[in-house]
Amino acid sequence: MKPLISLIYASRSAEHFHEHEIPDLLKQARLANAKHELTGMLLYIGGAFVQALEGQPAMVEAVFGTIARDKRHTQIALITKEAIAERAYEGWTMSHKTLDPVEAGELIGETEYFTSAIWVTQLDSNRAKKLLSAASMRWKIEHRSGKYRALGRGA
Ligand SMILES: Cc1cc2nc3c(=O)[nH]c(=O)nc-3n(C[C@H](O)[C@H](O)[C@H](O)COP(=O)(O)O)c2cc1C
Is this structure's pTM higher than 0.85? Predict the structure, then answer.
């Protein structure tokens, strides 16, 4: 089996970046990630990003290098980079959720956490993992119910 790593970082979106630009960003990221066999999740929380990227080490490193130079965000803080036995986001070239800061706090059981001005530079790996895992559970549920709704309509 090929070795896999997972990398998580947080960053603040640039002043000129607006939420409505996220679909374009995701489109670009998903095409490139499919090519590089990368999977992951991108959260957008009140003007900040938290992203998990997973795949083969060289690919993750290379793409993270590109992402880190991207002018659409600043204050990039690497939170973890570690070997993983299996992908947490298998089949998702980049899932995404926009959360408001209170909602994000609720997902980690600390309502106020993401309302502070400094969390982006201080987010630790435990909180980041808890947040990503709770957000991805929601994402899965929403996608599944979306599919069922679509099936229901057609029936
Ligand atoms: C918050 C954020 C997340 C991004 N995520 C990815 C990603 O998962 N994969 C990817 O290839 N590019 C991602 N990008 C885009 C890259 O930074 C870069 O624009 C893209 O890889 C194209 O680079 P190139 O013009 O050098 O080919 C992201 C950019 C931002 C600002």
Answer: yes
